[in-house]
Amino acid sequence: MSSYGHLPPYQAPTEDPRQTHPGTQQPRPKVAPGPPGYQPGGSPYPQNTSNFQQDQYAQTPQNGYGYGATPVQDQGYFSPQGQIPTDDPGSMGGLASQMGGMGLGGETAAVSRPGKKKNRHAYHNIDQPTVAAQAFNQSTGNAAQYVNQDPPQQMSAGQPITPAMNQFPAQVNPPFSPALQSSSQNPGFGAPVQTITTPSGPGVSAQGRVDPEQIPSIPRARDGATQYYLDHVYPTIEQHIPPPGAVPFVAHDQGNSSPKFARLTLNNIPSTSDSLSTTGLPLGLVLQPLASLSFGEQPIPVLDFGDVGPPRCRRCRAYINPFMTFRSGGNKLVCNMCTFPNDVSPEYFAPTDPSGVRVDRAQRPELTTGTVEYLVPKEYWAKEPVGLRWLFVIDVSQDAVSKGFLAAFCDGILAALYGEGDERVSDEDPDGEIPEASRKIPIGSKVGIVTFDKAMHFYNCNDELEQAQMLVMSDIEDPFVPLGSNGLFVDPYKSKSIIVSLLAQLPKLFSQVKNPEPALLPTLESAVSSLSATGGKIVCSLASLPTWGPGRLVLRDKNDLHGIESEKKLFQTDHPGFKKLAGRMVESGVGIDFFIAAPAGRYMDIAAIGHLSAVSGGETYFYPNYVAPRDSLQLSLEIKHTVTRETGYQALMKVRCSNGLQVTSYHGNFLQHTFGADLEFGVIDADKAIGVMFSYDGKLDSKLDAHFQCALLYTTASGERRVRCTNTVAGVSEHAVECMKFIDQEAVVNIMAKEAATRMTERPLKDIRNVLTEKSIDILAGYRKTISGSHPPGQLVLPENLKEFSMYILGLTKTRAYKAGHEPSDRRTHTMRQLKSMSPTELSLFLYPRILPLHSLPPESGFPDPTTGHLVVPPTIRASFSRIEDGGAYLVDDGQICILWLHAHVSPNLLEDLFGPGYTSLQSLDPMLNALPILETHLNAQVRNILAYWGSVRGSKAITIQLARQGLDGSEYEFARMLVEDRNNEAQSYVDWLVNLHRHIQMELSGQRRREDGSGGGISTMGMENAMAGITSLWTGKEG
Ligand SMILES: [Zn+2]
Asked: Polar residues: which segments have biased composition (predicted)?
């Protein structure tokens, strides 16, 4: 691993490339004049030319869905089209350098990997976008997935699907603010600055005095962006603020990575630490390196540079990327991270044209694409890469059998490997060859099966056997693996009949044994031993606290520590066995996903068990009240998802950044031995995100851009060793006011959530909530101070890009991780680890669910639009009980569970349309229902289509439904919890929260603020105290 991740000693650059910066000579693409005002530090980015807002959303009539009738917006949302002088025109030349003419000519870039099809990276002309530009979920090939597509009979022109984009009355004379202009490049949907008048004076209840319609609405913002991105591509260089988290979109990689892989909190970065401090914002990057792509997006290029490997900077080891520049006729390669001018090796040399661009640039994806993969030679190997070994470790003890968890888990494995029902038999090939299309896991990957109760059982599933052979290992004090890897790990398609029959027999077999206590730790130690030669992934089920054998766990949470200082002990483990095993897993290139059922909500010590998945890069699926008939579908779908999602193993990650910045901390689920070391992952998958925080070790040059590169070295499931590079660029500005136009609030919230999760084991929960509150005040007050507007003090001013920020933070303080009041430690710990690894999409839904009324669905909703082919997605409503109508039916989805809530007076006709003839009352419905039956009714098809669509735009959890009938089901409690705008979860309502924030902002502005996070100082003091870490740490306490 010597060539990976070790920084050579720092040397001063021998030449300052700024003086010969090619950016100044390069041609720029000819584009139509863009909206004025957007020049972050003088960016030469091509401007976005579309006037989408006026075209699409302004002046639309209020839609007719019967909620929240509000004044019609009667003017566009752009400020008058006046030129705004920029502070530093012509700066930020770095970006233009290799980007000039970037892929706009419809050229075809070849992939240099031999044997790969050419033409797979045909770039699109931005003005006439082709494939990718069409849309998300376009009709071609996609509409077919939706059921009952006959054009809905009642569709008429009188029911336009044009949600008004802003529910607020237009300001008559909007006060001048630079932020007004900046919004023109951001399809953020609504007024650039939101002002709310709140009652003044402490102790005044806001409810009833602030119009709840006036406060920023996450559903409106999401729905508007969703509509916009149905027929707009996100061009990664031209646009600077990514779509909101839960909004599906198609990105066009123009050299800057798609926001699916990387999102910066600030897409224009202050040049100094002091300047950043004034904003109160963290400088951070949310990385999701293996994120899945949408239909219509270009696959990630896979490039092979043979034995020499990809070109890298000799000094900082950054990989070649579109922002490195060539000069001296192509002989020198100037690094965009450290500015070192490298010699270009003869095999990589190509001349540059008169403008300084390499003549072969268009054929080289590494010079045009922000996210690429490099096949890497042996020096990057830790061990011989092989196809991924999946080891299913199945709990067969008494609780697993009797709760139906074992049967459901076995069925889930079968569904994951061989598909559902009919699919499972249809892929038999008479010649014994398995067509690749019917494989659920790639060629080369293998599976093994182990079961355990107080002993462990290994299964030889070799395809030469008639049936699986069981080898029992009852010596759990000193276990070994009684089976060579050839018998344990088999091709699941060659051994299909053996595996199918084994998994079908297991529940019956162990129903006669009934050992009550599972011995988890010794079993996992053996499992890791069986994988130590290759690395791999363990998928383990568990249905009761493992109280048997070495490393047994005990009931630690006795309900006596809640709310007191030592409660945090319950959120972590001191168990030496589990801690040691976690380290051994990562070292062996092994990661683990747990599927844990806690029947009747019993204690499972998630802190100790889940520690293994948290450290090894895996995931814990936790079913706190597992009930077999209801939850088995979700279990099965989630096993399928975990096996079929993109998974890499034996991974190392390093993030590099421009001179002047440094990484201060990482937050996520991984192992980092020492500060500054590479992050290590046993496994990493498509759903996992990592937060990276930066501070300044110097001043950034506002004439250059700031660059970030994440390099993930990993082995693919098919057994190839690769590096995935994710390159991200941001502008640099001397003025914080410029930077505030390019805040990505979803990234800010994600970073704050991840850092708070890291601190949960160090600080009392009350401190964590206080810090989140104080940071929100810092950020909003920072905006008020920076943008010296003329708003009266009675107005809460929310910048366009932070409009929904406060609500997300309120949602965060209401999660089970941080909320006040009693909460079992298992739930708190589980939520904490989820927050650490959640992607922006998953987190956004988790903090603010989407709620859809079903009783008032317009007829065309849930079907493809006949002209565009897009699924017509109806508007969602605010998460508040005040929006719930008598007799209503609602779907509530927070990305983890989806509840179908039915009002006591819901129409019998609606019930019959949804559930079938005879189901006319709430009492007649089966509370164990987990999916809708397939009916011929219009409503049933609409809802199934919408659920299928939602299932495609969320994170790692499967979508099934859980009934919550008013007055009948316990899940109503969950429903109430998810109405996050209300006063619940031991926290304020949204309105009261805003009023509270506003009061503190006013006090901060008048110098009277008393901080409650225990830091005892204001922003400036905080900056002083953390001179090394800068403001990037949200925490003034001890640094982790
Ligand atoms: Zn370098």
From this structure: 48-63, 72-84
Q: 175: how many CB neighbours lie within 10 A of its CB?
A: 12
Six-digit token string for 1038:
């001890």
pLDDT of 159 = 29
Task: Tell me the C-alpha distance between 62 and 312, whole Å.
Answer: 55
Q: What pairing do the DSSP bridges indicate for beta strands 341-343 and 284-287?
A: unpaired
Residue 989 CA to residue 814 CA, distance in Å, equals 11
DSSP 862: T
Strand (E) or helix (H) holding 227: helix 218-230
Q: How far away, in angstroms, is 331 Cα from ligand 1 center?
A: 16
As given in the structure block, the two tokens for residue 915 are 């559930």
pLDDT value for 799: 86
Distance 658 CA to ligand 1 centre (A): 9
State in Å: Cα 981 to ligand 1 middle. 48
pTM above 0.90, yes or no: no
The Cα 405–Cα 503 span in angstroms is 13
Q: Strands 456-460, 469-473: parallel, antiparallel or unpaired by DSSP?
A: antiparallel
746 Cα–ligand 1 center, Å: 30
Between CA 982 and CA 992 the distance in angstroms is: 9
Distances (CA, A) of 690 to 654, 659, 754: 11, 22, 8
Q: How far is residue 820's CA from residue 815's CA, in Å, rounded to a whole number?
A: 9
Spatial separation of the C-alpha atoms in residues 51 and 705, rounded to whole Å = 27
What are the pLDDT digits (tens) for 226-261?
999 998 999 999 988 999 989 999 999 999 999 999
**pLDDT per position as a tens digit, 967-982:** 999 999 999 999 999 9
* Continuous segment of H or E residues that includes residue 122: strand 121-122
Residue 513's contacts (CB-CB under 8 Å, 6 or more residues apart) are 396, 453
Q: Could you identify the residue written with the tokens 């730790």?
A: 521
Q: What's the gap in Å between 728 CA and the centre of ligand 1?
A: 15
Q: In whole angstroms, what is the distance from residue 699 CA to residue 623 CA?
A: 49
CA 706 to ligand 1 center in whole angstroms: 13
Q: How far is the CA of 317 from the centre of ligand 1 (A)?
A: 6
Q: Where are the beta strands (DSSP E) in 848-919?
A: 850-853, 889-893, 898-902
pLDDT in tens, 840-873: 999 999 999 999 999 999 999 999 999 988 899 8
**Whole-number CA gyration radius for the chain:** 28
Q: What dihedral do alpha carbons 951, 955, 961, 962 form, nearest 10°?
A: -170
Cα–Cα dist 502/896, whole Å: 31
In sequence order, the 6+-apart residues with CB closer than 8 A to the CB of 173 are none
* 306 touches 300 (CB < 8 A): no
